[in-house]
Automatic annotation (TrEMBL):
Residues 2-75 form a coiled coil. The lineage of its organism: Eukaryota, Sar, Alveolata, Ciliophora, Intramacronucleata. Signal peptide: none annotated. It comes from Pseudocohnilembus persalinus. This is Dynein regulatory complex protein 12. It is found in: Cytoplasm, Cytoskeleton, Flagellum axoneme. Belongs to the DRC12 family.
Length: 112
């Protein structure tokens, strides 16, 4: 009976050792998975920060381009207004100049 007891005890001890090893393996696996998760979270945060920085840079660039385009439109508008004013001045002054020229030539002819 003692031998049978030792054999059963040995079998139980082997089973306990096997289960303890399995628990250790699973704990190691859990630890590794936790480390992987932390690493992935860190990588994700870095990617998000890079994307946010890229988005901020793109928004700034769009704003700069918008301001440059607005300035270009203002400059074009100013040039067109100057041309319109010049054409209007020519049109407004032409009849007055013709009248004045007639007056001068008429006065010169009268003085001869």
């Amino acid at each position: 009976m003692s031998e049978q007891y030792k054999r059963v005890q040995s079998q139980y001890q082997e089973e306990v050792n096997k289960l303890e090893q399995e628990v250790d393996d699973q704990n190691n696996q859990i630890t590794q998975l936790d480390q992987d998760m932390v690493e992935y979270q860190h990588e994700h945060e870095e990617k998000m920060l890079k994307k946010e920085e890229e988005l901020t840079n793109l928004k700034r660039k769009v704003e700069e381009m918008s301001q440059e385009f607005a300035k270009m439109l203002r400059d074009t508008l100013d040039k067109m207004q100057q041309r319109i004013e010049l054409v209007q001045w020519d049109n407004d002054s032409e009849p007055q100049m013709s009248k004045r020229l007639k007056e001068i030539t008429g006065a010169a002819l009268d003085n001869k």
